[in-house]
Design a protein that fits this description.
mainly alpha
Length: 190
Protein backbone atom coordinates (compact mmCIF):
# COMPACT_ATOMS: atom_id res chain seq x y z
CA UNK A 1 0.00 0.00 0.00
CA UNK A 2 1.42 3.40 -0.94
CA UNK A 3 2.03 6.18 1.57
CA UNK A 4 -0.95 8.24 0.40
CA UNK A 5 -3.39 5.40 1.02
CA UNK A 6 -1.88 4.71 4.45
CA UNK A 7 -2.16 8.39 5.37
CA UNK A 8 -5.74 8.43 4.07
CA UNK A 9 -6.66 5.44 6.25
CA UNK A 10 -5.04 7.09 9.26
CA UNK A 11 -6.88 10.33 8.51
CA UNK A 12 -10.33 8.72 8.31
CA UNK A 13 -9.47 6.97 11.57
CA UNK A 14 -9.01 10.36 13.24
CA UNK A 15 -5.30 11.13 12.85
CA UNK A 16 -5.02 14.91 12.29
CA UNK A 17 -1.30 14.65 11.42
CA UNK A 18 -2.22 12.46 8.45
CA UNK A 19 -4.82 15.02 7.40
CA UNK A 20 -2.09 17.68 7.46
CA UNK A 21 0.19 15.38 5.43
CA UNK A 22 -2.52 14.92 2.77
CA UNK A 23 -3.11 18.67 2.62
CA UNK A 24 0.61 19.49 2.41
CA UNK A 25 1.21 16.83 -0.23
CA UNK A 26 -1.66 17.76 -2.53
CA UNK A 27 -2.60 21.43 -1.99
CA UNK A 28 -0.01 22.89 -4.37
CA UNK A 29 -0.73 20.26 -7.04
CA UNK A 30 -4.43 21.02 -6.73
CA UNK A 31 -3.76 24.75 -7.03
CA UNK A 32 -1.72 24.30 -10.21
CA UNK A 33 -4.42 22.02 -11.61
CA UNK A 34 -7.20 24.45 -10.69
CA UNK A 35 -5.41 27.29 -12.46
CA UNK A 36 -5.87 25.33 -15.70
CA UNK A 37 -9.60 26.07 -15.45
CA UNK A 38 -9.62 29.70 -14.34
CA UNK A 39 -7.32 32.63 -13.66
CA UNK A 40 -9.28 33.47 -10.51
CA UNK A 41 -6.73 32.49 -7.88
CA UNK A 42 -9.11 33.16 -5.01
CA UNK A 43 -11.76 30.89 -6.51
CA UNK A 44 -9.22 28.07 -6.85
CA UNK A 45 -8.02 28.57 -3.27
CA UNK A 46 -11.61 28.67 -1.98
CA UNK A 47 -12.51 25.48 -3.84
CA UNK A 48 -9.45 23.68 -2.46
CA UNK A 49 -10.34 24.88 1.02
CA UNK A 50 -13.93 23.68 0.52
CA UNK A 51 -12.68 20.22 -0.44
CA UNK A 52 -10.43 19.86 2.57
CA UNK A 53 -13.10 21.26 4.90
CA UNK A 54 -15.61 18.76 3.50
CA UNK A 55 -13.12 15.90 3.93
CA UNK A 56 -12.38 16.84 7.52
CA UNK A 57 -16.03 17.22 8.49
CA UNK A 58 -17.07 14.00 6.80
CA UNK A 59 -14.06 11.79 7.48
CA UNK A 60 -16.16 9.19 9.28
CA UNK A 61 -18.22 8.58 6.12
CA UNK A 62 -15.32 8.58 3.64
CA UNK A 63 -14.17 5.45 1.88
CA UNK A 64 -10.65 4.91 0.66
CA UNK A 65 -10.40 5.88 -3.02
CA UNK A 66 -8.29 3.81 -5.39
CA UNK A 67 -6.14 6.85 -6.15
CA UNK A 68 -6.05 9.83 -3.76
CA UNK A 69 -4.67 12.25 -6.38
CA UNK A 70 -7.39 11.40 -8.92
CA UNK A 71 -10.02 11.61 -6.18
CA UNK A 72 -8.86 15.10 -5.14
CA UNK A 73 -8.43 16.28 -8.76
CA UNK A 74 -11.97 15.10 -9.55
CA UNK A 75 -13.36 16.82 -6.47
CA UNK A 76 -11.61 20.08 -7.38
CA UNK A 77 -12.68 19.94 -11.01
CA UNK A 78 -16.30 19.31 -10.03
CA UNK A 79 -16.22 22.06 -7.41
CA UNK A 80 -14.70 24.57 -9.84
CA UNK A 81 -17.21 23.72 -12.56
CA UNK A 82 -20.03 24.11 -10.05
CA UNK A 83 -18.72 27.48 -8.90
CA UNK A 84 -17.99 28.76 -12.42
CA UNK A 85 -21.46 27.76 -13.59
CA UNK A 86 -23.32 28.54 -10.40
CA UNK A 87 -25.98 30.48 -12.23
CA UNK A 88 -25.95 28.58 -15.50
CA UNK A 89 -27.16 25.01 -15.62
CA UNK A 90 -26.39 23.23 -18.85
CA UNK A 91 -26.40 19.63 -19.92
CA UNK A 92 -22.70 19.53 -20.74
CA UNK A 93 -21.03 21.69 -18.12
CA UNK A 94 -17.62 20.14 -18.67
CA UNK A 95 -17.60 21.20 -22.32
CA UNK A 96 -18.33 24.82 -21.36
CA UNK A 97 -15.33 25.26 -19.06
CA UNK A 98 -12.12 26.08 -20.91
CA UNK A 99 -9.04 24.13 -19.92
CA UNK A 100 -6.00 26.38 -20.21
CA UNK A 101 -2.53 24.95 -20.15
CA UNK A 102 -0.11 27.76 -19.40
CA UNK A 103 2.98 28.45 -17.36
CA UNK A 104 2.88 30.11 -13.97
CA UNK A 105 4.17 33.67 -13.57
CA UNK A 106 7.18 32.42 -11.61
CA UNK A 107 8.23 30.12 -14.43
CA UNK A 108 7.91 32.93 -16.96
CA UNK A 109 10.34 35.18 -15.08
CA UNK A 110 12.90 32.48 -14.31
CA UNK A 111 13.45 31.12 -17.79
CA UNK A 112 15.92 32.49 -20.35
CA UNK A 113 15.35 33.57 -23.97
CA UNK A 114 15.71 30.06 -25.41
CA UNK A 115 13.07 28.74 -23.07
CA UNK A 116 10.75 31.58 -24.10
CA UNK A 117 11.13 30.60 -27.74
CA UNK A 118 10.42 26.95 -26.95
CA UNK A 119 7.43 27.98 -24.85
CA UNK A 120 6.03 30.03 -27.72
CA UNK A 121 6.41 27.03 -29.98
CA UNK A 122 4.57 24.78 -27.50
CA UNK A 123 1.82 27.36 -26.94
CA UNK A 124 1.38 27.75 -30.68
CA UNK A 125 0.94 24.00 -31.02
CA UNK A 126 -1.41 23.83 -28.01
CA UNK A 127 -3.54 26.59 -29.50
CA UNK A 128 -4.45 24.17 -32.29
CA UNK A 129 -6.02 21.77 -29.78
CA UNK A 130 -9.53 21.87 -28.37
CA UNK A 131 -10.04 22.35 -24.65
CA UNK A 132 -10.62 18.62 -24.12
CA UNK A 133 -7.52 17.75 -26.16
CA UNK A 134 -5.40 20.09 -24.02
CA UNK A 135 -6.90 18.55 -20.91
CA UNK A 136 -6.07 14.98 -21.90
CA UNK A 137 -2.53 15.96 -22.94
CA UNK A 138 -2.10 17.62 -19.53
CA UNK A 139 -3.26 14.55 -17.63
CA UNK A 140 -1.30 12.06 -19.69
CA UNK A 141 2.01 13.83 -20.20
CA UNK A 142 2.32 16.42 -17.45
CA UNK A 143 0.52 14.66 -14.59
CA UNK A 144 1.60 11.25 -15.99
CA UNK A 145 -1.76 9.68 -15.20
CA UNK A 146 -2.83 6.29 -16.42
CA UNK A 147 -5.62 6.00 -18.98
CA UNK A 148 -7.91 4.64 -16.26
CA UNK A 149 -7.27 7.72 -14.10
CA UNK A 150 -7.88 9.98 -17.09
CA UNK A 151 -11.15 8.18 -17.84
CA UNK A 152 -12.28 8.83 -14.28
CA UNK A 153 -11.35 12.52 -14.35
CA UNK A 154 -12.78 13.22 -17.78
CA UNK A 155 -15.78 10.93 -17.43
CA UNK A 156 -14.88 9.00 -20.58
CA UNK A 157 -14.83 5.33 -21.40
CA UNK A 158 -11.43 3.85 -22.20
CA UNK A 159 -11.90 3.80 -25.98
CA UNK A 160 -13.11 7.40 -26.10
CA UNK A 161 -10.08 8.51 -24.07
CA UNK A 162 -7.76 6.57 -26.38
CA UNK A 163 -9.41 8.13 -29.42
CA UNK A 164 -9.16 11.62 -27.94
CA UNK A 165 -5.48 11.29 -27.12
CA UNK A 166 -4.72 9.81 -30.53
CA UNK A 167 -6.55 12.64 -32.32
CA UNK A 168 -4.68 15.14 -30.15
CA UNK A 169 -1.31 13.58 -30.91
CA UNK A 170 -2.16 13.34 -34.61
CA UNK A 171 -2.99 17.06 -34.67
CA UNK A 172 0.28 17.85 -32.89
CA UNK A 173 2.22 15.55 -35.22
CA UNK A 174 0.76 17.25 -38.30
CA UNK A 175 1.87 20.62 -36.89
CA UNK A 176 5.30 19.67 -35.55
CA UNK A 177 6.26 16.57 -37.45
CA UNK A 178 8.25 15.15 -34.54
CA UNK A 179 5.92 14.35 -31.67
CA UNK A 180 8.85 13.45 -29.41
CA UNK A 181 10.23 17.00 -29.64
CA UNK A 182 6.87 18.44 -28.64
CA UNK A 183 6.49 16.02 -25.73
CA UNK A 184 10.02 16.84 -24.56
CA UNK A 185 9.28 20.57 -24.64
CA UNK A 186 5.92 20.06 -22.93
CA UNK A 187 7.53 17.92 -20.23
CA UNK A 188 10.23 20.54 -19.71
CA UNK A 189 7.54 23.18 -19.11
CA UNK A 190 6.09 21.50 -16.04
Amino acid sequence: MDVSRVKWQEFVSGNDDSYCWIYTTYAQKLYQYGMCFTTDTELVKDCIQDIFTYLYRNKAQLVSPDNIKVYLFTALKNNLIKQIHKETITENLVEDVPFVLELTVEEQFIQDEQYKNERKQVEKILSLLTSRQKEIIYYRFIQEMSMEEICTLMDLNYQSAQNLIQRSLKKIRSSVGDINLFLFLLFAMR
